[in-house]
């Protein structure tokens, strides 16, 4: 009886579309209540990025947004998030074409057999790979590439969709939060504050080890519980449905020469992708192009008919359309707050509040400010361009050096991506994995407490050491 009541309550929880639209409504109401204001912006040397001018804040006349703007914000949000949204659609479409050849199923079966009895080894290995890439280039959006690849494997090994999503999201976002050479956060912060590029890397490398270990242990704890009792899974029904869908797509289970050739081609294309991202600065456009190439190569080798290729692309895109729309809706919240001119007002008020704290508490206050601000501006580069020119001189006044200030901002920007529904990449991953947002919160809230405590302790240590480049 209790299980039935619990099931009814969960079914009544709003769909993520409804949650995000409600947040857009709240954002619109906030623009009517909070005063409007703005900082002046100056163009950086790259000619495109705009940075806030310190001490230039001023209140402006209130221009009330009408309710119809709420509907316009949906379109503007989708437009603003178009690169990520279209990446989701392209990867979904191309992955389905590759999957239709049977090569993926064969590869998964082969790996599952080899890992029999040693399934837990996959967590530290794969999570290290995801963390390493995020530590070097940031690139949290690459989770949209990782998740479709690991999901069928993890289900085949007897884990659930929460485990697969957790190992990808936790490792990537944790490493992103203390990234060693992320050009979109650390690089911008160093440029604004005048520090040597990527200076202070030694301390961030230590933190990488700490948060990598914390993430692996957290996901392993949950995965062991699910392996022991599958019904203890937070997403038992959703995982069963996903596993059934993948089983229906399995096709041949014995490896053929064509399957092996497709697998080799995918490995080569993946290697090119990693090289391009690290050495050539490739981003979503190039990644999408490589996925299209991968789909074409797989289709040719697998002798798929043109009609089958097109049908599978449509089916693949259908499967991830919700994830693409989620990106637009989450971006729409920021569109409304920006149009109402209240984002600068909020950061101005928060910065004034932290200025009265002693250094040891002020550095934690900045960490928390950036956490809260990430709900409004869910973009690492965007957030740093707004907050760093304001917080850096403020930090100097209260005795916090620029290196520690960048670290506090970096962690504040990164960790809340694990929780906030305004994180388009997170919500896209949840939509792909068919994980309801409230169940994700149940899974991740304890880890959020852990990283918040670890982050605060790290910042206090950095402040005590007068953390610098060397």
TrEMBL record:
The chain crosses the membrane at residues 12-34, 83-108, 120-137, 143-159, 166-189, 201-220, 261-283, 289-306, 318-337, 357-377, 384-406, 418-437, 444-465. It comes from the Bacteria. It is found in: Cell membrane. InterPro entries: C4_dicarb_anaerob_car-like, DASS-Related_Transporters. GO terms for cellular component: plasma membrane. Pfam families: DcuC (PF03606). Keywords: Cell membrane, Membrane, Transmembrane, Transmembrane helix. It is a multi-pass membrane protein. This is C4-dicarboxylate anaerobic carrier. It comes from [Clostridium] hylemonae DSM 15053. The lineage of its organism: Bacteria, Bacillati, Bacillota, Clostridia, Lachnospirales.
């Amino acid at each position: 009886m209790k299980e039935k009541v619990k099931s009814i309550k969960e079914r009544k929880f709003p769909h993520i579309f409804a949650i995000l639209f409600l947040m857009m409504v709240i954002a619109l109401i906030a623009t009517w209540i909070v005063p409007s204001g703005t900082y002046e912006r100056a163009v950086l040397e790259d000619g495109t990025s705009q940075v806030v001018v310190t001490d230039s804040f001023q209140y402006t006349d209130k221009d009330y947004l009408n309710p119809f703007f709420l509907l316009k914000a949906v379109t503007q949000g989708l437009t603003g998030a178009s690169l990520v949204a279209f990446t989701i659609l392209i990867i979904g479409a191309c992955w389905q074409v590759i999957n239709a050849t049977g090569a993926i199923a064969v590869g998964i079966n082969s790996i599952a057999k080899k890992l029999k009895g040693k399934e837990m080894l996959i967590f530290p290995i794969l999570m290290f790979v995801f963390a390493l890439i995020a530590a070097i280039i940031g690139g949290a959006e690459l989770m949209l590439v990782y998740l479709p690849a690991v999901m069928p494997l993890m289900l085949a090994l007897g884990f659930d969709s929460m485990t697969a999503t957790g190992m990808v999201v936790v490792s990537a976002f944790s490493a992103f939060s203390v990234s060693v050479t992320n050009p979109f956060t650390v690089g911008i912060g160093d440029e604004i504050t005048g520090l040597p590029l990527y200076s202070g890397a030694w301390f961030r490398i230590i933190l990488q080890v700490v948060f990598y270990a914390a993430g692996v242990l957290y996901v392993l704890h949950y995965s062991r519980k699910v392996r022991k009792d599958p019904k203890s899974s937070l997403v038992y029904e959703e995982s069963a449905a996903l596993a059934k869908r993948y089983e229906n797509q399995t096709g041949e289970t014995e490896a053929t020469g064509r399957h092996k050739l497709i697998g080799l081609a995918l490995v080569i294309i993946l290697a090119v992708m990693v090289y391009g991202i690290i050495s050539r600065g490739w981003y979503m456009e190039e990644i999408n192009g490589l996925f299209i190439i991968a789909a074409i190569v797989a289709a040719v080798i697998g002798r798929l008919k043109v009609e089958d290729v097109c049908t599978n692309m449509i089916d693949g895109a259908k499967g991830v359309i919700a994830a693409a729309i989620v990106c637009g809706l989450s971006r729409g919240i920021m569109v409304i707050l920006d149009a109402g001119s209240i984002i600068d007002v909020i950061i101005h008020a928060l910065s004034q509040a932290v200025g009265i704290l002693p250094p040891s508490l002020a550095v934690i206050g900045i960490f928390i400010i950036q956490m809260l601000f990430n709900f409004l501006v869910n973009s690492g580069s965007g957030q740093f361009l707004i907050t760093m020119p304001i917080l850096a001189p403020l930090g100097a006044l209260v005795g916090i050096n620029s290196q520690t200030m960048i670290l506090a901002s970096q962690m504040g920007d990164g960790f809340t991506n694990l929780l906030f529904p305004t994180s388009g990449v997170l919500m896209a991953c949840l939509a792909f994995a068919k994980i309801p947002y409230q169940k994700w919160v149940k899974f991740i809230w304890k880890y959020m407490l852990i990283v918040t405590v670890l982050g605060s302790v790290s910042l206090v240590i950095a402040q005590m050491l007068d953390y610098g480049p060397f």
